[in-house]
Amino acid sequence: MAEAAKRSGMAAEINTNGLRKPVAEAYPSPKLLDRFKQAGVPVTTATDAHSADRVAERGDDVRTLLSDVGYESLRAYSARIGRDVHI
Questions:
Q1: Please, which of 18, 32, 51, 79 could form a disulfide with 28 given CB 3.0 to 4.6 Å?
Q2: Is 62 in contact with 69 (CB distance < 8 Å)?
Q3: Residue (of 59, 83, 61) closest to 73 by Cα position
Q4: What 3 state SS string does 58-78 have?
C-alpha cells in the first residue's frame, strides 16, 4: 500500500477519529504510518469533524505520532496543488 501511494503521488491521511473508538489509535496505525514514512509518502491530517468544536481535535496526539515516526512536515493542498508545511 505504501509503495502504491508513493508511485501514484498520493498522501496518507492521518485521521484522529479512531482515538475516540475502541481501537484507540489514529488511522492509519502507527505501524502502517511508519511504512508510509519509509516509502517517502507525505501525510495530511483530518479529524472527521462534524462540528466546529472538533476541528483539530487531538492535534497534540497527532503531532506526537508523526514525530515518533519521523515526519517533520504535513502536505497541504490548495486547488489540488500540494505543498509541505513544517510541523
A1: 32
A2: no
A3: 83
A4: CHHHHHHHHHHHCCCEEEEEE
For residue 28, say if its preceding peptide bond is cis, omega within 30 degrees of 0. yes
Q: Cell for 32? A: 502502517
Cell 502507527: give the residue: 30
What pLDDT digit, counting tens, does each position of 20-74 carry?
A: 889 988 899 999 999 999 999 999 987 667 778 777 777 888 899 999 999 999 9
Chain centroid, CA 24 distance in Å: 16
In the block, cell 466546529 appears at 52
H/E stretch holding 38: helix 30-39
Give me the residue spans of the domains in the chain. Answer: 2-86
